[in-house]
Amino acid sequence: MALRMNRYLLEFYQENQRLNGEKHLNPPFPVLIYNGDSKWNAPTSLRELFYKSSVPKKYIPDFSYFKIAINEIPKRELVKIRNAVSAIFYVENSTPEEIKANRKELVSLLSSVIKDEGARIVDAIFERMRKTQKIDKKVSVIKSVEDLVEVTGMRETAVKRHEKQILEKGIEKGIEKNKIENALKLIERGKDNSFIHEITGLSLKEIRSLRKEKKKM
């Protein structure tokens, strides 16, 4: 894997230079995410693959990648992090039996993700869980997560609807304010009420009221 990832990186740099002609390269931070069941025991450094030699180390190519083995991260730590990545790792690092047994813990974790990152990403995690873990829909954890996503989705919709109403009211107020300002300018210019009504769309009653307010100023 160290050899393969190093090759990926070098080919990427070579293609990038060919297309863009850049003289310098951005420093890499290679990350490997492993979600297998067995323990990851492959070398993480290219230098580990070479035989021992008298060649000075500075002339021996070296490359390392940062390994994230999901099955090595304790679930208690994932629960503490409480974000979308930790939720995905939690699901990937659990058997169907563990998910059933830790239903409340998983639902609590997903509740935090919904609060911070929205229902869509939790819905995607939920679909991933169903496909990878092959859990029966009748299992209580599935029902809990479905309800969690549905209720939060409804809340998000309600919030968006409320924001839209506020925006529409603000626009309406802005239009009304603009009409009044234009009407006052036309009054100052000596235009009659019928003309102002045609230009601004204000009612004759509203225009007469503006004239009275104008006289008081």
Major sheet strand order: 1-2
Strand content: under 5%
Helix content: 55-70%
What is Rg?
Answer: 32 Å
Number of strands: 2
- Per the principal axes of the C-alpha atoms, what is the gross shape? elongated
3D structure, described in words:
With 217 residues, the chain is mainly α. Among the domains are: 1-72, no CATH class; 169-216. It has nine helices and two strands. The chain has helices at residues 2-20, 75-81, 84-92, 96-101, 103-117, 119-133, 140-188, 193-200, 204-216; strands at residues 31-34, 66-69. Strands 1-2 form a two-stranded parallel sheet. Helix 3 (84-92) packs parallel to helix 6, helix 5 packs antiparallel against helix 6 and helix 7 runs antiparallel to helix 8. The longest helix has 49 residues, at 140-188. It is elongated and about 100 Å long. Residues 151-159 have low confidence and may be disordered.
Keywords:
single chain; 217 residues; mainly alpha; two-stranded parallel sheet; 9 helices; 2 strands; 65% helix; 4% strand
